[in-house]
Amino acid sequence: MIVSLVAVIMVQAYWINSAFENKEEEFSLAVSQSLQSVSKKVQDLEISNYISAYQQLIDSIGTPDESNFTDVFLFVDNDDDITSNLTSFYAFGILQEDYNISLSDINPEFGNDNLKDFKKVKTTTILSKDKIFNRENRVATSITKLKSVERMSVFDQEIFRSAYLDYSSTIPVHKRIRTDELRLLLEREFRARNILTSYEFGIYNNGLATKVKSNEYIEDQKGSRYETPIFTQDNGQTPYKLVVTFPDRDEFVFSSILSVAGLSIFLTLFILIVSTTAIYQIIRQKNVSEMKSDFINNMSHEFKTPIATINLALDAISNPKTQSKKTKLFNYLKMIREENQRMLSQVENVLMISRLEKSSSPIELSEIDIHNAVQDALRRVDLIIKNQKGSIYLQLDAMQTRFRGNLNHFTNLIVNLLDNAIKYSDGTPKISISTYGVDKMINLKIKDQGIGMDVNTQKHIFEKFFREQSGNIHNVKGHGLGLTYVKKIVELHGGDIKLISKIGEGTTFLISVPIL
C-alpha cells in the first residue's frame, strides 16, 4: 500500500510538472507568434502609410504621360542641429525598361501588356540648407516626376517598399513608431491569444535601449524575456529588436493549470489520508488483537490456579478420612470460598469495564469523604503489605475532604493503584499517600519506589488490555484492565489523573477531583 501511494504521488507530481512545462511551451509559442505578428504589422503599417500618401498625390494629377525614368522619392534629412549649414538630400527613382515584347506571345493568360523591367536608382547629395526647397516645393517637384506612374500594382508597391526601406534605415526608431502605437498592437495580439498577464516592452538598437519602451521597463527587468527582429531590411538584417518581458509569467502559467492540478492534489491528499488512516487502523487492530490474546491468556492463567485449588479441595473433602476431621473440612471449605471469590472478582472487573463504557451514567454519586476512601483501601491491602514487610506513609493534609462521588468505586480505584505499587515494587514495597487542596480541587497522590516505566509504556498505560512486558513474558500477573478502570472512574467523578514515572525511580499517580 505504501509503495502504491508513493507511486501515485510520483505520477501526480510528474503529471503536474509536465502540464506546467507544456503550458510554458504554449505560452512561449503564443508570445513568439504575437511578437512576429506585431513586427510585421509595424513595418507594413509604416510602408503602407507612406505609399498611401503618395497614392493620393498620384490620384490628384489624373492620367500622367509616359516616361522612361521617373524620380519618385525626394527626402530631406530633418537635421535639428541649427549650427550646421549642411543637410542630406536623398533621391530615389525607378528606371522603367520596355522590351516591346507582348506578354500574350509568351502566355495568353498574361494579357496584351508588354514585358517591362523595373530597376531602382538611388542618389545621395549633401547640400547647403539655403539651396534646399521648402516642403511645398519638394512636393510639387515630386508630383511632376510621377507622370509615368498610374495606380500602383503590387509589384510597383514592392519597388516603392524597397526604396523606402533604404531611406527609413537612416531615421531614428522613435520617429518611425510611437510607444503608444506599439503598446496597442501588442495588447491586441496578446488578448487574441489569451495572454492576460502584465508585461513590459522596449526596442533595442544593437543591444542599446532606445526611447521606445514602456513606462516601467528597465534593462535588467526580471521575468521571462522574449525578443524578435523589427524593421528588417531586404537583406534580412536589422539592428533593432523588440524585447518583451513577463514578470509574472510563472504565476500566470501555473494559474492556467491550477484548477486541474488543485483537484489532482486534493484527490491525492484524500487518498493519502484514507490510506494512512487504514494503515493506522490495521496496526491498531493488530495491537488490540495481540493485547486481547494476552488478556485471554492471563485470565486463563488467573482462573486455572483457583480452579485447580478448588478441585484439590473437593477431592480432599470427598476423602472419608477428611470428612471425619471437621477442622480440615472447614479449612478446605474456606479455601474453596476464597478461590471462588477470587474468580468472581476477576469476572466482576471485566464486566465493570464493559458497563462503564456502555452506560452514560453508570454509577450513583453522593457526598463522600476522600480520607474515608483512603482508609478503606488501606484496610484491604493491609494484609498484603504486612506479608511483604512493606510500609505505607500517610500525609493527609487536605482541609476540605468532601466531594461528590461513589465511595465503593473510588475505594476500588485506590486499591488498584496500591495493588500495582505493591506488584511492581523491586523488593520491599514503600508507598506514600498524601492529600492536599489546590484551587477548589482535592489532590490525591500515590507514590511508590518501584521499577517505574519508560515513556512508551506511559503513553499506553491507560489503554484496555495493555500491560508492560519484558519480551513476550509478563513480569507480573494481571489482566490489563486495572488502570483502564481507574481512569474511567476518575473521569466519571469529573476529575483528572496524571502519571509521573521514570525507570528505576518509581511511579507517581496524581488524582484531582472537584470539592463540593
What average pLDDT do the residues reach?
Answer: 76
Strand content is: 15-25%
- Contiguous low-pLDDT stretches (5 residues minimum) are 61-72, 128-151, 470-475
Tally of distinct domains: 4
Distance from first to last alpha carbon: 54 Å
Overall radius of gyration: 52 Å
Strand order of the largest sheet: 9-11-12-14-13
Supply the CATH class of the largest domain.
Answer: Alpha Beta
Q: What is the CATH topology of the largest domain?
A: Heat Shock Protein 90
Task: Describe the model.
By secondary structure, this protein is of the alpha+beta class. It folds into four domains: 2-46 and 175-256, no CATH class; 47-172, no CATH class; 258-355, Signal transduction histidine kinase, dimerisation/phosphotransfer (DHp) domain (Helix Hairpins); 365-514, Heat Shock Protein 90 (2-Layer Sandwich), CATH 3.30.565. It has helices spanning 2-60, 103-106, 135-144, 154-168, 173-176, 179-192, 249-256, 258-318, 320-323, 326-358, 370-387, 407-423, 455-460, 482-492, and strands spanning 69-76, 86-102, 114-128, 200-205, 208-213, 224-229, 240-246, 366-369, 391-396, 402-405, 430-438, 441-448, 496-502, 506-514. The strands form four sheets. A five-stranded mixed β-sheet has the order 9-11-12-14-13, covered by helices on one side. A hairpin with a 2-residue loop joins strand 11 (430-438) and strand 12 (441-448). The longest helix has 61 residues, at 258-318.
Quick structural overview:
The protein has 516 residues and is of the alpha+beta class.
Give me the secondary-structure topology.
Elements lengths: L1 H59 L8 E8 L9 E17 H4 L7 E15 L6 H10 L9 H15 L4 H4 L2 H14 L7 E6 L2 E6 L10 E6 L10 E7 L2 H8 L1 H61 L1 H4 L2 H33 L7 E4 H18 L3 E6 L5 E4 L1 H17 L6 E9 L2 E8 L6 H6 L21 H11 L3 E7 L3 E9 L2
Parallel strand pairs: 9-11
Antiparallel strand pairs: 1-2, 2-3, 4-5, 4-7, 6-7, 8-10, 11-12, 12-14, 13-14
Helix pairs in contact: 1-6, 1-7, 1-8, 8-10, 10-14, 11-12, 12-14
